[in-house]
Amino acid sequence: MHQRKSKKILIYFFLLILVGSINNNSINNLRLEKVKKINIFGLDENDQKILLDSLNNLDLKNIFFINKKSIQNIIENNSLVEDYNVIKKYPYSIDINIKKTNFIARINKNGKFLLVGNNGKLSNNSNSAIKLPYIFGNPEIEEVLELKKIIDQSNVDYSQIKSLYYFKSKRWDLELTTNIVIKLPEKIEKEILDKISIFLNNIKLENKEIVDARIKNQIIILDE
């Protein structure tokens, strides 16, 4: 009985050494590949390259120990990105799917016109072919986004707006492509814009006339 127990102990000891040897060898031979490829989808070729260069500067080690925060910071600081997701493709590549923001206007900042994105960020005016209204004045970007949201909810066609004028009183004027100027009240509501839209569709206005909707329940036509 004692001899049988000794044999079992010897066998277990031998198996322990064998398993330990296999694990040690596996660990010694394990070499984690560095991230070799980053695929970016949703941006044009030039914008992909700019973002890719920034990500490559991170010197990503391997896919198991990626610093997610550093990648997120670079992507979220890109003014073209509205939304995104990052997918690890084992063993050594990453896919980044990007929803590019839509540009809604041009604004003058320090003598330079910049594109206002629907994500609330400003981008260099590199694509002059985009037809967008110009913003004059110095509104907060959140105020621009709020105005655009209300216009989109109304029957006013945003594509027919040529310029947006912002005043220190936080009031807006809209200049249409027909050169008609609409003076809006300080508090803009969808219902007001709908009434203006109906009014414009039912009356023929001459070039450069002003539609004054600043007084509640009144729309006044003025000559410039």
Give the CATH topology of the largest domain: Rossmann fold
Order of helices and strands: HEHHEEEEEEHEEEHEE
Specify the biggest β-sheet. 9 strands, mixed
Spatial strand order of the main sheet: 6-5-4-7-8-9-10-11-12
The 3D shape can be described as elongated
Give the C-level CATH assignment of the largest domain. Answer: Alpha Beta
Q: Strand share of the residues?
A: 25-35%
How many separate domains?
2
In DSSP terms (H or I, runs of 4 or more residues), the helix count works out at 5
Throw out a few tags for this protein.
224 residues, alpha/beta, Rossmann fold, three-stranded mixed sheet
Description:
This protein is α/β, with parallel strands linked by helices and 224 residues long. The chain has two domains: 37-100; 103-222, Rossmann fold. 33% of the residues lie in helices and 27% in strands. It has five helices and twelve strands. The strands form two sheets. Strands 6-5-4-7-8-9-10-11-12 form a nine-stranded mixed beta sheet, with no helix packed on it. It has a three-stranded mixed beta sheet with strand order 1-3-2, with no helix packed on it. Strand 7 (134-136), helix 4 and strand 8 form a beta-alpha-beta unit. The longest helix has 28 residues, at 2-29. The chain is elongated and about 75 Å long. Mean pLDDT is 85; it is low at 10-15 and 18-30.
